[in-house]
Amino acid sequence: MRLVLFLLCIPCLAYAGPFDGEAVEPPTECAKGVTTSLWRSGHYPLLARHDGPEGATTFEVRAASGRSVGKVELPGRGRCLGWSPVAHAFLVGSIHEIGVVLPMPSLELVAEDGKARATALERDRYAAYALVTNGRFVAFVSYDPKLGDEIKLYALELATDRIRELGPAPAPPPDRDVRSTRRWRWGVEGEEGFMDLEPDVLRFDDDDVLRVSYGKDTSRARSKQRVVRTFRLGR
Known about the structure:
Layout: H1 2-16, E1 22-32, E2 36-45, E3 56-63, E4 68-75, E5 77-84, E6 89-95, E7 106-111, E8 116-118, H2 120-123, E9 130-133, E10 137-143, E11 151-157, E12 162-168, E13 202-204, E14 209-214, E15 227-232
């Protein structure tokens, strides 16, 4: 009987996750401000599991002398997104689980005094499946939490912290591990996590000009026939 009980408990131990170990990333400089720099470090489970531990990322502002000015910790896997001259702060994000998807719901500005503030993307409960930034604007793919699950393309102006809807979202990058007969899309019925879009699909061509490429893309490949739209965000 004891042997049977032990065997039955093995799946429980495997799901719990604390025995899988974790990867530790040492502090690495990832962006420079005016008088300080931003350093990123983190610890993450070696084997990610739904509803399991996600680890955390620490962003540390350091003076030119190396002295620590302040630290910010975000859950999950953090991204250092550079310096925003219009916001006078570093832009950072973090990818972590919401339900069964793995987008980037955390997007914050870290000032040179080490203090952080959430952007409208985080405060208003958007969750980016993809994004690009040029330090002035952030273009991101997300659902609108006020309207439902339809995923569209939005722009966040960092100087004013305002979000506006731009239009349809470009399709996710192809994923040959997925055999989908449906239209390739973001979310539960398609690509469920944050992905970096190819520059040919989503990029800034100028200080306030966003270029977006659309096609009848599938999980197997990008369509060769493309329709390109440009959005002038400064207007």
